[in-house]
Amino acid sequence: MRVPTGIPGLDELIEGGFEEGNITLVTGGTGTGKSTLCMQFIYNGITQYNEKGVYITTEENVLNIKRQSAKFNWNIEELEKDGSLRLIEMEPFDIDTISDRLSEVVEKMDAKRIVIDSVSMFEMYIHDPFKIRKTLFKILQRIREMNRVCIVTAEIPEDSKGLSREGVIEFMVDGVILLKYLGIAKYKRSLAIRKMRMTDHSSDIHPFEITQQGIEVYSV
Ligand SMILES: Nc1ncnc2c1ncn2[C@@H]1O[C@H](COP(=O)(O)OP(=O)(O)OP(=O)(O)O)[C@@H](O)[C@H]1O
Ligand SMILES: [Mg+2]
Residue whose CA is closest, atom 4 of ligand 1? Predict the structure, then answer.
């Protein structure tokens, strides 16, 4: 079954949405729109598809996320109050606590959509590459067991050619969406589906915009 993002222009590139049970990585440089895409996915899930959401933030604080969302006219405070959204700030120190807390919250409220924004913090806090792999694997494993639909974000450092800081997470997920900021031409932002298992996805580079309504992706 497909779970639509509800983001204008995106679902038609991926056979209607994310496959249930899958984990998708949204990756890109700073300011490319990763958090916006995630919140739009969660917000649309609740308001258009009646699917509850959990948003874990390891970087920005909850207050900033609320302020940014209000700019897009997404009243997430209201959704928090009625129990359809949980916004949780987590420090990337204790992976077991994070995993336990996440499953507890997701199961208790029966959330369908999960966001972890971002996993780069794990990559930065843990220095041993083997431990990074183990940590990411563990948390993704827990998410898979829950059989929901999940987006994780990662940040690509300015000078990097890879898809994430450590070059590990992209191999552990089912899909990768790459966002770029070009800063030139009519459209300054682009989106590409780098992989999407089980999906006949677009292989084009699509321009997109962030407007007052959030993200809108264009066909080419
Ligand atoms: N109301 C708005 N209208 C148009 N563009 C906006 C609006 N609000 C934010 N933006 C754009 O969105 C960008 C931030 O997007 P977002 O926070 O989703 O990116 P990110 O990839 O998560 O960045 P970070 O590296 O900080 O995590 C801003 O830099 C700005 O260009
Ligand atoms: Mg962000």
Answer: 211
